[in-house]
Amino acid sequence: MLAQPQDRTYIGEASFSVAARVAMQLGRESISNSTVAIIELVKNAYDADANQVSIRFHGLDRDNPIMVITDDGIGMSEQAMRDQWLVVGTANKRTKHSSEGKHRVLVGEKGLGRLGLDRLCGRTTVRTFTSAEDHGMEFVIDWRKYENTQQRLEEIKHPLYLIGKTIVDPVTLVERYIDRGTWIVLEELKDQWNEETLEEVRRELTLLVSPFGSGDDFEISLFSGMDWRQLDGVISPSDMLIAAEWQLVAEIGEDGSVAYRMFSSHYEKQYELSRTPWEHRFKKTKSALPRCGPLRFEMYFYPRKTVELGDIRFVKRQITDFLELQQGIRIYRDGFRVKPYGEPDGKGDWLTISYRRQQSPGGVTQKGWRVGYNQVVGAVFISREQNPKLVDQTNREGLVEGPAFNDLVMFTSDAISFLKEIGTNLKLASLRPVVLRVSDK
What structural domains and CATH numbers belong to the chain? Predict the structure, then answer.
C-alpha cells in the first residue's frame, strides 16, 4: 500500500465531469452522417413499442425547412424524460433487453438517437405523451448552446413545459389530439435534403421493416413534402427480398397435398415439386392428411456478399444489416406474429437450423450443404379458421406442441431440405443472371 504523507488533511471528495462541448463532439463522432442519425431516432420509436413512425419534411424548397418525426409509441412521462432520455449513456438498455408491451428486442444504441439530433439540426422540440396522463411534455433544445462554451454538460439548461394533448401539426397546421407517442420537430436543419439524399434514407430504412408486414409490425413512412412520388409513402422491404439469391415457396393445399417451388431472382432457374399427396411425401406419418391444416411457407436465402441486379445494387453491408434484424423463420397467424418463433438473435430457432448447419457446414455447391440461420428470412402463414389445431399455449409463449405442430415442423423442415438437396447439385457458374419478379404472398 502506498505510504501516505504525515501532514495529509482530508478536505472532501471530487468527481469527474465532462465539458458540454466535448460531450457533443463525442456524439457527433458516433453519428457518421444524417442518415444514421435518422435511423437511430427510428430505432428509438421501435423500442418504444410504436406501430408506426413517420418522417415528414416541410418546406424543402424554402429557406427554413423542418423535419418532423412522429411515432405512436408509449411516450415518456416527466420522470422518464428526466431519468432516462436526458441521461446520456444510461444503463437502461443494458439491463433491459426487451420492450415492456410488445417484448421487442431493443435495438437503440446508448443514447445515439438524442445525440443525433445535434447532428441534424440547430433546434429541437420534443413533445411526448403517455396514455396514463392527461397532459404531455415539451422539451425545447437549442443545440447552439453547446458550441464554444466552457460550461459543463449539466450546467446547460433547456426549458421543459407541460402541454395539452391537442396540438397543431407543424406540417399540416391542423389541430390533432395525441393520446400517446412522441413528436420531434427539427428546425434549422444542417443538411441540404434533396431527392438523392432522401433516396438514401429510404433505402436504409428498408433494413428496419419486416418483410412480412402485418397489423402489429413496425411501419415506417417517409414524406418529402415535395410530391416526389417515388420517395413518398410507406417503406417496403420488397427490394431487400429481391436481393435474395433463392426463394422457396411451399404450400399445403386444402386437399392435404404439398407443393414446393424454388427459384432465383439472380439466375434463370426454377425447380418444382408438383402437387403430391401428404401420405406419399411423408410415408412415416400415421395420418393421411396433415393435422396442421393448409398453409403457406416462404423463405429467402441470401449470400452475404454484394448483389447487383441490373441497375439495382445491394452492398454486402446492407444485406448483412438486413439479416441481423430479420433473419430466422417466423410464424404469422392472420397477419399477426406468433412469438417467439424466428427471433433474429436465434432464440426462436424452432426448426433447429443452426444446429443442423453446425453438423454439416458445407457451402451451396458442396455435398451436404445446409442453410444457415443467419442466411435466411422466412415465414409460415396460418389462420385461426384454416388451422384450428394450431393453438396457443396458455401462457401465450408459442403454440401447443401436439400432433398439429409436429406436422407443421415436419413439413417446413422438409421444404428446407428440398432447397438443400437442389442446392447441393447446383453449379452456379453455369447460370445466367436475370431479374425475376418476386411472387406475391
Answer: 20-235 (3.30.565.10), 240-430 (no CATH)
